[in-house]
Design goal:
The chain is α+β, with helices and mostly antiparallel strands. It has helices at about 5-10, 45-60, 75-85, and strands at about 20-25, 35-40, 95-100, 105-120, 125, 140-145, 150, 155. A 6-stranded mixed beta sheet has the order 5-2-1-6-7-8. It has a two-stranded antiparallel sheet with strand order 3-4. It is globular. The model is unreliable at about 1-15 (pLDDT under 50).
């Protein structure tokens, strides 16, 4: 399954008050990126990040003539920047500017109008996993050198297939 199809099929299964989670990347030097929080990310947002870095790593490794740089070394802070940059490609991660109206002029909450350029206000950075709200689903760390993901209980979480 292509990464685009996989990412666009990720479903927000959040409740009415939030489905909070945070992620970070950690590299082989044990350097950890700033933490990315998502108010509605649930457990699917870490899965999106894990799938993304798996595809990204494979693509970078295939590039001929690539020199050693923060991207090719999969440095954690650079991976977070690359991941955030990718989010804008998918409507589900863009800012909601309002909702389509039904025939009576009432907002249809199931039909958001998404920004073409702005990332959702529900996604924000923190200096560590305690610098934001991940109270529903905790924090996930993705190792850039092994492409493995661990939750905040140090349990390895594998890549799930999106149905």
């Amino acid at each position: 399954m292509s990464s685009v199809v996989w990412l666009t099929s990720a479903q927000n299964k959040g409740g009415s008050m939030g489905d909070r989670v945070s992620i970070s990347f950690k590299d082989s030097d044990q350097d950890e990126s700033p933490v990315l929080f998502h108010h509605w990310g649930g457990t699917w947002f870490p899965q999106v990040a894990l799938k993304w870095i798996t595809v990204f790593n494979s693509r970078i490794k295939k590039q001929k003539g690539r020199v050693s740089d923060p991207t090719s070394r999969m440095e954690s802070r650079n991976m977070m920047v690359q991941f955030i940059g990718m989010l804008n490609k998918f409507e589900t991660f863009r800012e909601c500017e309002g909702f389509e109206k039904d025939s009576k002029g009432k907002s249809d909450w199931k039909k958001p109008i998404r920004s073409k350029i702005d990332i959702s206000h529900s996604i924000y950075l923190g200096k560590d996993s305690n610098d934001g709200d991940n109270s529903d689903n905790g924090h996930y760390t993705i190792m850039t050198n092994t492409l493995k993901m661990f939750d905040d209980k140090d349990q390895e979480i594998g890549l799930e297939e999106v149905k």
